Amino acid sequence: MLPAAPGRAQSDAQGGARERPAPSGFPNGFLWGTATSAYQIEGAINEDGRGPSIWDRFSHTPGAIADGSNGDTATDHYRLYKEDIQLMKELGTKAYRFSIAWPRVFPDGTGAPNPKGLDFYKRLIDELSANGIEPFATLYHWDLPQAMQERVGGWTSRETPKAFADYAAYVAQQLGDRVQYFFTINECSRLVHLGHGLGGDAPGLKLPPSGLNQVRHHVALAHGLAVQAIRALGRSGTKVGPAENVVSCIPAIETPANIRAAEIATRELNAGYMTVMMEGKYTDAYLEKAGNDAPKFTPEDLRIISSPVDFVGLNVYTPDHYVVAADNARGFTLAPFPASFPHMKADWLRPGPEAIYWVPRHVAKLWNVKSIYITENGTSGSDKAAADGTIYDVDRIMYLRNYLTQLRRATSEGVPVAGYFLWSLMDNFEWSDGYEQRFGIYHVDFETKRRTPKLSASFYRETIARNAVV
Ligand code: GBH
């Protein structure tokens, strides 16, 4: 059980203080949740007819994963999901973002569905509903059926967006009575760049620019096709949108000129992702820069990619660029990061809490988006237990408190953020970092699979209970 945080005021526990508008409060009905993804937590890779995914293949490739591990059992959530839902309940969360593994539903990518694979998600969702937790389902969090990779070349082929649309349609049909909120693809940019450009993520390809640009186009097309499929086959009231880690551009100093420059940079640096999804065109600068390597596409593709969405999901971890207005062709300069800029346990995770203010503000302003969810935010930490057995992860609490303060700045100014999903409910398989980077607010002992709350779990529960930064 999650112990009460020391010093918790009695009146708060009884809800008395909550009735007065707290100065640091979030809007009424603000949705608090946690997030995970299938391959990172489920394990049970051979259970109930699941087919192999590109991450099974990749994680079993020698040298691919920092600690030589894989997701074969991960947190064993496939079996322990009921226990995990109790953790969510202890926190007081009212929403949960998880992903559906395509290879559980279509073991070969296309063709005959595997009802037993889908049944797991029905059980999961029913258990969530029984506990008053709203399911938010992501259709693709990087676990492409290996068969798609082998048969058609995965995301290098237009067959994959088509197969993804069929899978999305089937899921909408089968789960539409249980799920109202769908996300299409998690972080297009990472699966494109790390998976197909740098080779550090599955399927480990290092394509030349023309190939990489075509993959990027296919992934965007898959997003649009899935939006259409869910619209066509979901129940009325079904809502759908992307979950993207927009390249975050922060005005280095908040002057009107720098703010404008940061908006311009946001649009250009996300040209192949959020910009084309929202505007139905690639920017001139994007196409010019790509030159002969530009993706091949039709006007119809662009119409599909920009199918209207109901909300935008944003994964926000870190500032990608501090921006200064400049009198050059682009209109901005990206400030280089000084070597002394701090980072959390992961080198890439620089704490810049203002990112969670600026990203939704830019997205709402640039594309007139009316509903935004923060679909991921959080940090890894070293998370060692103290002598009394508690993991006092005050670095994670520091990080979360500062990000939530900036998120609250956004909501108080009317930026339409409707909810927040903390990454992650529990420690899990952190892709090429294996189990070395722990992002959970519950610690997982990967030998025994035991879950234990870190101090940050108490922090999050207090935040939710007061609907305010604590
Ligand atoms: C998210 O990506 C993922 O959606 C989630 O599955 C993951 O567990 C979580 O974050 C924590 O990492 O090439 O070494 O410089 C976060 C955004 C963008 C983080 C790309 C890593 C590159 C690292 N990611 N970034 S590196």
Number of helices: 18
Q: What is the CA–CA distance across the termini?
A: 21 Å
- Low-confidence parts lasting 5 or more residues at pLDDT below 50? 6-18
The pLDDT mean sits at 96
Question: What is the helical fraction, as a range of percent?
Answer: 40-55%
Ligands: ligand GBH
Q: How is this structure best described in words?
A:
This protein is of the alpha/beta class and 470 residues long. 41% of the residues lie in helices and 13% in strands. The strands form three sheets. An eight-stranded parallel β-barrel has the order 1-2-3-4-5-7-10-11, surrounded by five helices. Strand 10 (372-376), helix 17 and strand 11 (417-423) form a beta-alpha-beta unit. Helix 9 runs parallel beside helix 11. The chain is globular, with a radius of gyration of 21 Å. Mean pLDDT is 96; it is low at 6-18. Bound molecules: ligand GBH. Residues 37, 186-187, 190, 245, 315, 317, 348, 376, 423, 430, 439 line the site of ligand GBH. Ligand GBH binds at residues 37, 186-187, 190, 245, 315, 317, 348, 376, 423, 430, 439.
